[in-house]
Request: fold
Amino acid sequence: MIWAVFVAVAGLFIGSFLNVCIYRIPRDESVIWPASHCPGCGEKIKPWDNIPLVSYLLLRGRCRGCSERISPRYPLVEALSALLAVSLLYRFGLTVSFGIYYAWACVLLVITFIDIDYQIIPDRFSIGGIIAGLVLVYWLPVTYRDALIGLVLGAGLLTAVIYGYYFLTGKQGMGGGDVKLLGMIGVFTGWEGVLFTIFMGSLIGTMFGIPWAFLRKKDLKAAIPFGPFLALGALIYVLWGTQTIDWYFGLLG
Ligand SMILES: [Zn+2]
Reply:
């Protein structure tokens, strides 16, 4: 319980750093320097106004200097980071696997919001993740064989889907970024995780994507990036994959 509180608080502060990554990495800015400033007035944010969640609530979502609205995404990312940290702690206990999967979840969180903003998934996360994963898998409940099959299956399946989609419609569907992302997910989850992620990602993507595309009056592919749904599917697999699969096959009898 003490650990859960500690991990949640650490998760909030790490989430605050993830916000910096999401904002600065696509702009090619350093994530370390300079200190955070308000995008409205450029004023440096004081340390006591930079406490995750708390400052946002105290300031009622506005900059102290210029009263410019602060995006609710900042507290959202902080809360998600803390939530993932605690959920993974309950799933894996205080183990090395927990630490690795939390770092991986942070990368997926950053990828998600960069993909939403720019429709790109930076190679440093996908390819970097593949390389890091192949080293770290030693400490994960995934065998080397499964990690390699996961990598090839993940990247291969999506490549096939992209070519198939292009062949059928003459349009480019998903991008190469999604291919590398699913390959990276495969290293950390194994091939079963890849199949689960595609299934779950498509299911949730369709559930949210169709109304979203309808509201924006765009076709499905133009309206939403697929990366966030792959990330979400992968996280569900690592946290509750076995239970979900058991439940599903239970339904089938
Ligand atoms: Zn300001």
About this structure: Residues 38, 40-41, 43, 63, 65-66, 68 surround zinc ion (CB under 6 Å). The chain has nine helices and no strands.
